[in-house]
Specification:
15-stranded mixed sheet, transmembrane helix, about 900 residues, alpha+beta, Ig_Tag1-like_5th, Immunoglobulin-like, eleven-stranded mixed sheet, Ig_Tag1-like_4th
Length: about 900
């Protein structure tokens, strides 16, 4: 303004010189106009002439005048060039501010918010020594509706509409991660791209770019955090110096920085996969020997528009060691084939894993666990639980695979969850042969295995091999812990924890079923722990009284020792489940009735055919006998049993008379001879007093008279000392059996229970009274008696007897034949009363090895006889003189064995009595 005032002041007196001076002033103003305001200039230079002040005031007055005149009222048209210049300068300043400062920042913000790039395809054209050559295709659009601020949206739309399009030159993009110490993920060489900047206009972009890997160690850290799930969020920073131009206008080098935040769901997860096929096979190793290979086909989801061809890769399959802080154990070498990845399509990955040998740490038991790492892996897998296998890139260079990929993959360990697989019912058939049962030992502790019943048997099973196992396999040893069920109720636990030798034979697949393995093993003395006595009682009842057998359900975890191409290995906890049919103890034909025509309907008991021999009295008291005998019986079942100790009660008419004991006894299928038995006869004490003693005397009388007697057998708590519950369980099945006959014992020949022997008229020797000889002149009789004892003397303390004619009476008489009569009165033909004791020595003539040998018996001293003086009886005796007369006898006999005394009655029929003078 000072220069302008200087140019105006002289013009008032010299117009023309003023115009020349005006030009000079304008020129001088452009060169010498001071930067400070006039007031500041005056303060600094007091010598400025006063005419400058008046000229400045005059110009300001003219500019402020409404009429545009000067102070004298005259028009000043010569002022317009200055006004136009000043206005143009102001507009230029505004445009410079808008385009140089406001427009770039506004357009930048607009571009960041409005830019939309939708990738349609990402393909790897090829792998290079330092990275990959990638082709990126997509659609670029500026969408103004995405811009939140209205002023930015409007200005951005205006400026990009003016520019219409922009083109970038070739540049290098660097991608880094600020939160990981600005580690460089990689760089990309991006060629020039031209895009349409107008709102809503779509530009298709097709770029071929060289991508170079960055810091491998940094990439490894990021990859491990992502795999381990520790990558909560990720900030990615991209930087590039990009040359830009719009049309012919060059915008120079522009530094472009763009930051993306990936968090939570924005971070891509590990792709889902499914194992479509898994097959194990045996292979020949290049260096000799055999190994195992696993071929797998894995379907992997690919939800991304990515297309590439992955070269063959090599990995190492690792598994957990005993503890997490210990290094992984290498299990196999894994190779993948060349893989073609199509955009947004599932990818089928074919993998081959080769196991050369099983490393020692894999099969050694972990301290304190009893299981090896291999046991833990296989245990989870075969029980349907997920297990984890770790995959790490191989360090060995691969053909056609760049080194940077090998280095990167070797630095990353990725866990791969392997879904478990349940194989269903592997055991198809399960059978027990040559079964041997051992009852509890009486000396075993209550909680020891010997206190339980034990089973020995040949186990024969058919195992269905999974389709995946396409290789030779054999089973050398097995062991198991099995739960046994009956009708869905648990019976007990079968303890097979000891290794048992086994043999196996592979059976090829047929049209109807896959390959199987026939396994046989011998189990010795496996304890069966009864956990539910009621269920066990039901099983015993079904086996003893049923005829169809029972079906037991077995669930077991089996440990199997396998022999494979990799050597011997143990697979523990293999689930096995199957049905075990148990044949009925009763014979299928029901057996034949026992001696004496018993009415017992149990076919098993009817088939035993028990007989007693070699009866020996061990000790005596005034009211008890302890005796031993040899028992012969037939076992109609296919099962054998060993009985270390067993005690059972003997009852008659619901009265306890005795108890019998067997020890160290083995019963085999079929006929069993000379089984030692010990019994204690003590009704007075066991049965509860004199009523029981009377029942015992009555039973003995019937027994020695040859009647069809029975005994009830019932277990009790002391039957199995180590398992009192087992004895109580069996006590529910008190069974009644025919009393075993003594050697040479009689039978009720006519089946009417009176033992009169009148069914066929033949003489059959009685058990106790064999024969008699009557002397008419001396009125005496000599009786031949068969003592049931072979080692003890039996004392007859008293004898009161009567003889009767049999029914029907004899009809003919002959010295050489037996006489019978048509009719007979029920009165004695002779009586004997003999109070004097006499001894019956042991029966020494029995041959235990041949029970059919004839026994001679012992003849009594002459016994006084009182004859009936009249009647048919006397006539029958007289007519039978010199021959034999068949008579019936009834007697009360006092007997003593040692300290034991008892009085019994005897009734026998069909006794052959010789008649002599």
């Amino acid at each position: 303004m000072t220069s302008i005032n200087q140019a105006v002041a002289p013009e008032e007196h010299h117009p023309q010189r003023g115009r020349r001076q005006d030009d000079d002033v304008e020129r001088d103003a452009s060169e010498n106009t001071p930067l400070l305001p006039p007031t500041a200039q005056a303060n600094d230079d007091r010598s400025q002439p006063r005419r400058e002040t008046s000229a400045r005031r005059s110009l300001l007055t003219s500019l402020q005048s409404p009429s545009g005149s000067n102070g004298n009222g005259k028009s000043s048209k010569r002022r317009w060039p200055s006004l136009i210049a000043l206005a143009g300068l102001c507009v230029l300043v505004i445009l410079i501010i808008v385009f140089a400062f406001l427009a770039p920042s506004t357009v930048e913000q607009y571009g960041q918010e409005a830019a939309v790039f939708e990738p349609t395809s990402l393909s790897i054209d090829s792998f290079t020594a330092s990275g990959v050559r990638a082709r990126i295709q997509g659609d670029f659009t500026l969408d103004a509706q995405r811009v939140r601020t209205k002023s930015v949206r409007n200005l951005g739309r205006f400026f990009t509409g003016l520019a219409k399009e922009a083109e970038s030159g070739a540049s290098e993009v660097e991608v880094s991660l600020p939160e990981y110490g600005n580690v460089v993920l990689g760089t990309a060489q991006v060629p020039g791209v031209k895009v349409d900047l107008r709102d809503g206009h779509r530009t298709h972009v097709d770029v071929l770019s060289d991508l170079h890997a960055g810091d491998v160690d940094g990439i490894r850290r990021i990859a491990n955090d992502w795999i381990d799930g520790r990558l909560g969020q990720l900030r990615v920073l991209g930087k590039a110096n990009v040359p830009l131009k719009s049309g012919i206008v060059s915008l120079g080098q522009q530094l472009i920085r763009h930051e993306l935040l990936f968090a939570n769901k924005d971070i891509p997860s590990v792709p889902a996969y499914d194992i479509k096929k898994l097959m194990f096979r045996e292979i020949e190793l290049p260096m000799g020997g055999k190994g195992m290979a696993a071929d797998a086909s894995v379907i992997v989801e690919n939800p991304y528009p990515v297309e590439l061809t992955v070269p063959p890769l090599a990995f190492a399959a690792l598994v957990d060691n005993c503890h997490e802080d210990e290094p992984y154990i290498k299990l196999a070498d894994v190779e993948t084939h060349e893989l073609r990845v199509q955009p947004n399509q599932e990818v089928e990955v074919n993998v081959t894993a080769v196991v050369h040998q099983l490393p020692d740490p894999l099969t050694q038991e972990c301290p304190g666990s009893g299981q090896s790492p291999l046991d833990l892996i296989l245990g989870k897998y075969i029980h349907g639980k997920d297990t984890t296998i770790y995959i790490r890139g191989s360090s060995a260079p691969q053909l056609h695979t760049p080194d940077w990929i090998t280095t990167l993959l070797h630095s990353i360990t990725a866990p791969v969850p392997l879904p478990g697989r349940t194989f269903g019912h592997l055991v198809k058939d399960f059978d027990l042969a040559d079964t041997h049962f051992t009852l509890p030992s009486p000396f075993a502790d209550e909680n020891s295995p010997e206190s339980n019943p034990r089973i020995s048997a040949n186990i024969q099973a058919t195992v269905a091999l999974p389709e995946e196992m396409n290789f030779n396999i054999s089973i050398s040893r097995v062991r198991a812990n099995a739960d046994v069920f009956y009708k869905a109720r648990k019976l007990g636990e079968l303890d097979l924890h000891k290794w048992q030798h086994a043999n196996s034979t592979r059976i090829p697949a047929s049209k109807h079923e896959g390959p199987t393995l026939a396994v046989s093993s011998r189990v010795e003395n496996a304890p069966l722990k009864i956990t539910d006595q009621d269920v066990f009682a039901d099983v015993v009842q079904a086996l003893v009284f049923g005829r169809k057998g029972v079906l037991m359900h077995v669930k077991a975890d089996v440990d199997v020792e396998l022999t494979t191409a990799l050597g011997d290995m143990a697979v523990r906890g293999v689930p096995a489940e199957g049905e075990v049919p148990v044949k009925p103890i009763s014979p299928p034909d029901g057996g034949r009735p026992g001696h004496g025509g018993t009415n017992n309907t149990n076919p098993l008991l009817n088939s035993l055919h028990p007989t007693v021999s070699n009866l020996t009295i061990l000790t005596t008291t005034p009211s008890s006998l302890t005796l031993s005998a040899l028992l012969n019986l037939t076992n109609p079942t296919p099962y054998a049993a060993t009985i270390p100790y067993f005690n059972i009660h003997l009852l008659a008419n619901h009265t306890l008379l005795a108890h019998a004991t067997v020890e160290n006894l083995t019963v085999n299928p079929g006929f069993n001879a000379f089984l030692p038995v010990t019994a204690v006869w003590h009704p007075l004490s066991l049965g509860g007093g004199h009523p029981a003693a009377h029942v015992g005397s009555e039973w003995l009388s019937q027994f020695i008279s040859g009647y069809n007697t029975t005994l009830t057998l019932q277990t009790h708590r002391a039957s199995f000392p180590g398992q009192p519950e087992l004895g109580e369980s069996f006590a529910r099945f008190a069974v009644e059996i025919p009393t075993p006959r003594l050697d040479g014992g009689p039978s009720d020949d006519d089946g009417d229970g009176d033992n009169d022997g009148d069914d066929d008229g033949e003489e059959k020797p009685p058990h106790f009274l064999k024969s008699a000889t009557m002397h008419l002149i001396t009125s005496t009789a000599e009786v031949t008696v068969l003592s049931p004892l072979h080692h003890n003397t039996l004392i007859v303390t008293s004898l009161d007897a009567e003889a009767f004619l049999p029914h029907p009476p004899p009809t003919t008489t002959s010295r050489q034949t037996t006489t019978t009569f048509e009719d007979s009165e029920d009165e004695p033909i002779a009586r004997i009363h003999y109070p004097t004791p006499f001894a019956l020595p042991p029966n020494k003539h029995q041959n235990p090895s041949n029970p059919d040998d004839e026994e001679e018996g012992t003849t009594s001293p002459p016994l006084p006889v009182s004859w009936s003086p009249r009647g048919v009886g006397y006539d029958a005796v007289r007519k039978a003189l010199g021959g034999k007369l068949k008579v019936r006898a009834s007697a009360r006999v006092g007997v003593r064995i040692g300290l034991w005394n008892e009085e019994v009655w005897v009734r026998v029929g069909g006794v052959g009595a010789g008649v002599r003078l």
